[in-house]
Write a structure and sequence with these properties.
Oligomer: single chain
Largest sheet: none
Order of helices and strands: HHHH
Length: 87
């Protein structure tokens, strides 16, 4: 219900604003910020939908991971792909 009242109208307003062509450098900056807001809200909404579909055990494991998820993402960004000699 809250999503329908608050999130969807906000996304709709942002989508409409993103269709406009910026006429000044300031407008371009504002448009870029609105695009960032739109993308973040979309991502958060999608993630929330995914979380709602998780079973209790998986959700509990995810919540227990906490900030370890951030460290995992930082680590995977540092991994290098090493080709084997068979390739």
């Amino acid at each position: 219900e809250r999503r329908r009242r608050e999130i969807e109208p906000t996304l709709s307003m942002l989508r409409n604003a993103l269709l406009e062509e910026p006429s000044t450098p300031e407008d371009r900056i504002a448009l870029d910020r609105m695009r960032g807001m739109h993308d973040l809200i979309e991502l958060t909404t999608t993630w929330f939908d995914d979380v709602q579909r998780m079973d209790q055990k998986t959700l509990s494991q995810l919540m227990k991971m906490g900030s370890k998820v951030q460290r995992l993402l930082e680590f995977t960004g540092k991994l290098k792909v090493v080709k084997s000699s068979k390739e």
